[in-house]
């Protein structure tokens, strides 16, 4: 058939199938749903009984016509269709395999249509080609394919005892067919022996493109993702990414070919599944360690030594590379796999193995055995005979010189080390207490004069000391020593390149990324860059980009280094893998990062043994990843194991133990156990000073941790003092514009922020921003973090446009740096939600919080602190919207997540309990709210103490409950206690202290304590103006209205309140409940002024505001009804007024108790509205004239 005929057939088939599928005939009710079409040979010979269904009524088609074909017999059945042998009516010699499919399953029709289209575009001698297609009168789709007489691949191999070369030639033909399909952007996705028929003359035919898919020509990835077709795969031959449901490319077929090749060579599959459930399959693939084919090759119980020996080396390497779990580590294409096999068959070096001289020589000898043997034998004899004496003499002289040199080196090094230890010998040193740092300092000063005549030894010791000083945090001294070492070396010296890499590490620790890049660029100019140097250079670039936050570049560099992984020493290989795991973590892929660390740990334990310092360090890093993943119990287990190794190897008076203490503090802080956390941090600081000396960068780092913890506890004076000490140490070591200094300024700004001094806080934050931008550029993640803080600051001040602009900038930076699926993206979405919530745009806020929650659940799962925190914010929005049922469920879920994580004492649990209690209050469940608040307050006292910020907030919440419940004396007592704590923590004016004074004024006004409320109100008004926080100003102004009302200045109160309401109505950030309460107050005042119509209008407006904010049975609706009754009592509607006054009073008493201030005020309205001849039944109690 010509190319023109192929194209015409393809076009006609596509048109026919499109028409058939788009307009199918109706189906009779007696037909059943088929599952999976398979080719004749596949269906007939499939030994898996689970793949076959019971007999189907469609077997009645035997003997009938199907288009231009006569069906002769059924060849087999697949999961979703049947395959028949048929012959063309006008040419009985033309046999076809005819597949049928029922058409009432849309997804299966789509697969069938895709298979037809794919086959119509494929014309290769080793692919069974499409002949015709159509639709039966019953509605069944069908297609006719080339009928291949032969055996499936597995059966063929059993019947024909092929040697190794013949097996490989057969496999290469299969590869050629697949290459052809890949070039036409088609991947098979179901390669297995049953889908490969071998004809009588040994030609393979590739069958069954039923679940094949097409690729995007631009990206090389799968065009569309499917679910149903993935369920039809054969797990034993499917790639890990196909089983996981990832987007696929040609690498998935490379893996399946790897399984086939393994089976061809070893006689069995590389692994077996004992169950068919997906969890077992994934676990097996994850845990499997594939044995080399040469180790398992057997032939009917007798080991074929020659066959197995021929597999060792190249074929083992090729097979295992094709079977790599990571698609990036497999062959890049089927062509590359086939090329290596062809190179092997020709005796040439393959690409999958390092091209060492010894390997290339072995391959050469293999190709030219006899000439090589004769030539090498003669040459070797002549060389050995001619130069034996000279070589022997030279070797003896070199060994003598080397031994003398090493003896001198050992003597000098020993003397140097002895001089170091003598400094801590109390018999020889005048200092009875000397730190490790001082020992090193004296040794460094003694180094130059003691080894002046041995420059090579001096250079080695300089480089070693430079590395040690870097580890102790003294980067300037490390840089000085390494620079000296470098100046004593020539570029060609063996240790020069390693010294450059040590110098690079010091520059990275110091944060001098520009100089580090210059150094790497210079190293890259070396013309003699072999694989080892290339690997180290790319790895170094990867570390540079990691440190500087350029994660996209880091990924590229580390991937490039991994291509040379085999050339690196084992220790450097694992270090490279650790950096890849760190990158995964920084990119937000916490689960893959944890998995990579676990694999690294297993490799290190196999290499170093279980009791090695590097094993301990990797366990500690894995513990940190567990913390990021919210798995605190697993983190503690890792830390315990790491600490045990460190303590056993070095004891608890060693620099490595400092990190153990600091990690433990981090874990305790994450759990909310701040007291124990600070104890561990303090121990780490003391040990640092003892071992490393005073004022070291390590001490500054630990002081920063202590300062942040003190801030979280609310001990702001100590926190400020601690952070300032950290700043001074860092400035002394790094200068004023170093990144560490900038980080410390940011922490200092956050302390002032929490203390309420927003102006000073902003100055420090902008100082940090300036340093970051100067050192890192405008789009670095650290710049985004500072802009995020500024956005929150603007939001707190009500500067919505500036806040939104900052947040949008941060979002753009983070998406560019990390991609859209990263924890930091979820974080900024949540912050934007909080901003919109503060504006009163609750629907928009809920949308952003929901996006953040969805992303965090995708990244971390359901049980994680970040998920709990986002749910907490969603609950707050629900509470503000007065969707109290949703708020209640979300707060309860937050508490449940922290409980499941083992964080019962975490401060966020107490906050969630307090907010849940507020929800209970709003719903009138005061007893439940009180129990919850008392429980939260006790947890806070145990965790943080009675002088902490959180404890003050707990007292405030409990006081608010008592205020709402009418227990005004208890409320006042709690407000005063909370205010005393707040004023001890923060200088006036402060937002929290101001808010507590507002609460005190409110309760005193309720109690009629005008003298106690008035001076406090005057003071709070001045503080509110200074704070410039809109919500505080609104609350203070409303209390001023109440005071005017109580004092009898009704007109002044009304005018002032109308002005406030005019401003609130135009604001986007005011609470609807506050506006409704103000309208109720205004209606009460207007009634007293005799403005009844205005009062009734204000009451209706108040109800409208509350309609979407409070449950319909909330007590404030009864308060509004009482005020309405009071207003109507002064009109002709006195009967309705009496009903409203009585009903509202009784409802308030039933809900709140007759001593509640709302009930007492309702009773007073009812009492004031009655005529002299009317009497009131006070539920058995006299009218009380005492106001609580």
TrEMBL record:
TPR repeats: 700-733, 826-859, 952-985
A family per Pfam: TPR_12
Alphabetically ordered keywords of this record: ATP-binding, Membrane, Nucleotide-binding, Repeat, TPR repeat, Transmembrane, Transmembrane helix
GO molecular function per UniProt: ATP binding; protein kinase activity
Record region (Disordered): 15-59
Positions bound to ATP: 99
Taxonomic classification: Bacteria, Pseudomonadati, Acidobacteriota, Holophagae, Acanthopleuribacterales
Superkingdom of the organism of origin: Bacteria
Residue ranges of domain Protein kinase in the record: 69-343
Transmembrane region(s): 370-391
Name of the protein described by the UniProt record: Tetratricopeptide repeat protein
Compositionally biased spans, kind Low complexity: 39-51
Gene3D superfamilies recorded: Phosphorylase Kinase, domain 1, Tetratricopeptide repeat domain, Transferase(Phosphotransferase) domain 1
């Amino acid at each position: 058939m010509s190319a023109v005929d192929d194209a015409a057939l393809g076009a006609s088939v596509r048109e026919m199938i499109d028409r058939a599928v788009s307009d199918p005939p109706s189906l009779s009710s007696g037909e059943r749903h088929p599952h999976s079409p398979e080719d004749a040979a596949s269906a007939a010979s499939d030994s898996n009984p689970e793949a076959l269904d019971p007999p189907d009524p469609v077997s009645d088609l035997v003997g009938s016509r199907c288009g231009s074909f006569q069906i002769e017999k059924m060849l087999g059945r697949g999961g979703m269709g049947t395959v028949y042998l048929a012959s063309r009516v006008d040419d009985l010699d033309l046999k076809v395999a005819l597949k049928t499919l029922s058409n009432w399953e849309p997804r299966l029709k789509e697969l069938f249509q895709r298979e037809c289209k794919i086959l119509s575009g494929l014309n290769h001698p080793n692919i069974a080609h499409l002949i015709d297609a159509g639709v039966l009168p019953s509605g069944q789709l069908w297609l006719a394919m080339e009928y291949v007489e032969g055996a499936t691949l597995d059966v063929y191999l059993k019947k024909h005892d092929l040697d190794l070369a013949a097996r490989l030639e057969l496999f290469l033909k299969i590869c050629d067919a697949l290459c052809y399909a890949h070039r036409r952007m088609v991947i098979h996705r179901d390669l297995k022996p049953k889908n490969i028929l071998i004809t009588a003359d040994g030609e393979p035919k590739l069958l069954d493109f039923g679940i094949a898919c097409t690729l995007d020509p631009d990206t090389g990835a799968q065009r569309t993702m499917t679910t149903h077709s993935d369920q039809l795969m054969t797990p034993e031959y499917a790639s890990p990414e196909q089983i996981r449901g990832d987007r696929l490319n040609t690498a998935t077929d490379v893996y399946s070919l790897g399984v086939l090749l393994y089976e061809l060579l070893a006689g069995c599959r590389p692994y077996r599944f004992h169950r068919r459930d997906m969890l077992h399959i994934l676990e097996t693939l994850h845990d499997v360690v594939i044995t080399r084919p040469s180790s398992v090759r057997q032939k009917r119980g007798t080991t074929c030594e020659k066959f197995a020996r021929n597999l060792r080396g190249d074929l083992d390497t090729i097979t295992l590379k094709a079977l790599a779990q990571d698609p990036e580590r497999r062959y890049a294409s089927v062509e590359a796999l086939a090329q290596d096999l062809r190179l092997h068959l020709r005796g040439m070096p393959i690409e999958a193995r390092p091209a060492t001289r010894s390997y290339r020589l072995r391959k050469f000898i293999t190709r030219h055995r006899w000439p090589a043997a004769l030539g090498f034998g003669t040459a070797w004899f002549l060389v050995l005979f001619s130069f034996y004496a000279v070589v022997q003499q030279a070797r003896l002289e070199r060994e003598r010189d080397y031994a003398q040199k090493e003896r001198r080196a050992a003597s000098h090094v020993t003397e140097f080390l002895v001089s170091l230890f003598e400094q801590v010998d109390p018999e020889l040193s005048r200092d009875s207490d000397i730190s490790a740092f001082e020992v090193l300092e004296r040794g460094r000063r003694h180094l130059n004069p003691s080894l002046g005549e041995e420059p090579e030894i001096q250079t080695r010791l300089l480089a070693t000391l430079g590395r040690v000083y870097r580890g102790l945090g003294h980067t300037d001294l490390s840089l000085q020593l390494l620079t000296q070492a470098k100046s004593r070396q020539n570029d060609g010296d063996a240790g020069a390149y390693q010294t450059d890499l040590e110098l690079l590490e010091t520059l990275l620790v110091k944060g001098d990324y520009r100089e580090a890049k210059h150094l790497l660029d210079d190293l890259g100019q070396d013309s003699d860059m072999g694989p080892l140097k290339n690997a180290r250079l790319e790895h170094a670039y990867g570390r540079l980009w990691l440190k500087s936050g350029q994660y996209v570049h880091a990924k590229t560099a580390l991937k490039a280094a991994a291509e040379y992984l085999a050339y690196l020493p084992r220790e450097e290989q694992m270090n490279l893998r650790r950096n890849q795991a760190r990158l995964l973590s920084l990119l937000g892929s916490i689960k893959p990062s944890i998995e990579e660390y676990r694999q690294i740990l297993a490799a290190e334990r196999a290499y170093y043994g279980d009791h090695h310092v590097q094993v301990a360090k990797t366990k500690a890093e894995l513990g940190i990843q567990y913390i990021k993943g919210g798995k605190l119990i697993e983190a503690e287990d890792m830390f315990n194991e790491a600490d045990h190794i460190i303590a056993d190897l070095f004891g608890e008076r060693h620099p490595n133990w400092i990190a153990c203490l600091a990690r433990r503090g981090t874990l305790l802080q994450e759990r909310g156990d701040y007291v124990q956390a600070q104890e561990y941090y303090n121990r780490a600081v003391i040990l640092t000073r003892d071992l490393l000396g005073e004022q070291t960068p390590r001490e500054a780092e630990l002081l920063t941790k202590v300062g942040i913890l003190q801030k979280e506890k609310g001990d702001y004076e100590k926190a400020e003092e601690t952070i300032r000490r950290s700043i001074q140490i860092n400035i002394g070591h790094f200068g004023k514009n170093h990144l560490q200094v900038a980080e410390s300024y940011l922490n200092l700004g956050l302390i002032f922020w929490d203390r309420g001094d927003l102006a000073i806080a902003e100055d420090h934050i902008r100082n940090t921003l300036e340093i970051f931008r100067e050192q890192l550029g405008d789009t670095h993640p650290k710049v985004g973090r500072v802009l995020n803080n500024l956005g929150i600051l603007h939001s707190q001040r009500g500067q919505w446009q500036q806040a939104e602009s900052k947040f949008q900038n941060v979002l753009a930076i983070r998406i560019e740096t990390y991609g859209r699926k990263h924890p930091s993206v979820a974080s900024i979405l949540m912050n934007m939600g909080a901003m919109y919530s503060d504006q009163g745009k609750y629907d928009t806020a809920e949308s952003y919080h929901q996006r953040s929650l969805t992303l965090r659940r995708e990244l971390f799962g359901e049980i994680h602190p970040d998920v709990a925190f986002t749910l907490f914010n969603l609950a707050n929005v629900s509470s503000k919207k007065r969707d109290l049922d949703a708020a209640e469920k979300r707060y309860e879920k937050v508490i449940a997540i922290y409980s499941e994580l083992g964080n019962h004492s975490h401060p966020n649990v107490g906050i969630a309990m307090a907010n849940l209690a507020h929800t209970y209050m709003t719903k009138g469940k005061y007893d439940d709210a009180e129990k919850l608040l008392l429980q939260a307050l006790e947890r806070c006292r145990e965790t943080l103490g009675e002088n902490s910020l959180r404890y003050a907030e707990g007292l405030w919440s409990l006081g608010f409950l008592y205020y709402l419940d009418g227990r005004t004396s208890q409320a006042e007592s709690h407000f005063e206690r909370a205010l005393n704590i707040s004023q001890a923590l923060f200088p006036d004016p402060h937002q929290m202290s101001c808010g507590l004074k507002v609460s005190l004024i409110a309760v005193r006004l309720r109690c009629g304590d005008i003298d106690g409320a008035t001076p406090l109100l005057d003071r709070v008004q001045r503080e509110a103006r200074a704070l410039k926080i809109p919500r505080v100003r609104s609350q203070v102004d409303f209390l001023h209205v109440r005071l005017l009302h109580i004092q009898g200045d009704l007109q002044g109160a009304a005018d002032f309140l109308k002005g406030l309401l005019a401003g609130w109505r135009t604001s986007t950030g005011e609470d609807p409940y506050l506006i409704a309460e103000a309208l109720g107050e205004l209606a009460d005042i207007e009634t007293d002024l005799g403005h009844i119509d205005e009062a009734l209008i204000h009451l209706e407006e108040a109800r409208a505001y509350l309609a979407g904010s409070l449950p319909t049975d909330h007590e404030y609706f009864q308060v509004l009804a009482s005020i309405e009754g009071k207003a109507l009592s002064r009109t002709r509607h006195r009967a309705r007024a009496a009903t409203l006054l009585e009903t509202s009073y009784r409802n308030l008493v039933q809900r709140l108790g007759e001593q509640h201030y709302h009930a007492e005020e309702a009773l007073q309205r009812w009492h004031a509205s009655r005529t002299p001849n009317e009497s009131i039944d006070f539920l058995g109690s006299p009218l009380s004239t005492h106001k609580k």
